[in-house]
Design a protein that fits this description.
Chain B: Pfam families: PurS. The complex is a heterodimer of chains A (about 220) and B (about 80). Chain A is an alpha/beta fold. Chain A contains 5 helices and 11 strands. Chain B has a single domain, classed as Mth169, Chain: A (2-Layer Sandwich), CATH 3.30.1280. The chains are: A alpha/beta (about 220), B alpha+beta (about 80).
């Protein structure tokens, strides 16, 4: 499968994301924020970083980049889209996912290996995991606190759309320990921790993140 | 020329860590009796033409679409006199 990774001005993890896509057995395609051509990709990753310097609000300016018009349209037709960290913020600003991400409640940037539970495994990004799998993935954010109003949180829980939840300490004040969510259809997933930094033993806390990049093939070929 | 001011504030129920940081600093500087601080953003927008209801609506649309995130923020728009 061809997986596009968008580079915005200020993206940091686009290189690692393309590498993780490749290690996951797919073809990585570099996409550019200013170009609305998705170059025939089958899925899109919005990587981490500080796109547009996090000016105004994280993801608020990126959301209106030309490439996002195409990503939003494709996501509506079912294309798998994964937003990691800044990518998650962009998906919320795009209204592809509900809620918002605000500054960590303790006001400090956090960078650590984080334990998570993978709770939704019927998405194209998580089907490689067993339901309830406990994994360790890198987390690094300053504005990773997931917030939404109570009815929205109840709906996310009730519809099984919490994809990943923090275990042990909640690192950023996210409501209900939510680390990642999906849209109703499940093709759009936002995740605050960074699975692309946990795909090789040499450079990460292990390979627990690899599943996010190997899930695509099995999901698509099964459907 | 018309000038409008858009004030954007975090919703009351949303945690405001920046405001909390300022609140924590004020007593250390000798400012006693401060019970709360909320931090927001102010935009000053200048447009061609004279102030009108249509321009006000235009600025309101900007605030809804880009300047604020309705999930976490409220906004207010008001016209400001432009000195000749």
């Amino acid at each position: 499968m061809k997986v596009g990774v968008v580079t915005f001005p200020g993206s940091l993890d686009d290189g690692d994301a393309r590498r993780a896509v490749t290690i996951g057995g797919n073809e990585a395609v570099a996409l550019w924020h200013g170009d609305d051509d998705l170059r025939g990709v089958d899925a899109v990753v919005l990587p981490g970083g500080f796109s547009y310097g996090d000016y105004l609000r994280c993801g608020a300016i990126s959301r209106f980049a030309p490439v996002m018009t195409s990503v939003i349209e494709a996501a509506g037709k079912g294309m798998p889209v994964l937003g990691i960290c800044n990518g998650f913020q962009i998906l919320c600003e795009s209204h592809l996912l509900p809620g918002a991400l605000i500054r960590n409640d303790h006001r400090k940037f956090v960078c650590r290996d984080q334990r998570l539970r993978i709770e939704r495994v019927d998405t194209p990004w998580t089907s490689s995991y067993a339901a309830g799998a406990e994994v360790t993935i890198v987390l690094k954010n300053g504005e990773g606190g997931f917030v939404a109003d109570e009815p929205t949180l109840d709906r996310l829980e009730g519809e099984g759309r919490v994809v990943a939840r923090y275990l042990d300490d909640n690192p950023n004040g996210s409501l209900r320990d939510i680390a990642g969510i999906s849209n109703e259809a499940g093709n759009v997933v936002g995740l605050m921790p960074h699975p692309e930094h946990a795909v090789e033993d040499l450079t990460g806390p292990g390979t627990d993140g690899l599943g996010f990049f190997t899930s695509l093939a099995s999901t698509v070929f099964a459907s | 020329m018309a000038r409008y001011v858009v004030d954007v504030m975090p919703k009351p129920e949303i945690l405001d860590p920046q405001g909390k940081a300022v609140l924590g600093s004020l007593p250390r500087l000798g400012f006693a009796g401060v019970s709360d601080v909320r931090q927001g953003k102010r935009f000053e927008i200048e447009l061609d033409g004279e102030p009108s209801d249509a321009l006000l609506e235009e600025v309101r649309a900007m605030a809804e679409k880009l300047l604020s995130n309705p999930v976490i923020e409220d906004f207010e728009v008001h016209a400001q006199d432009v000195e000749a």
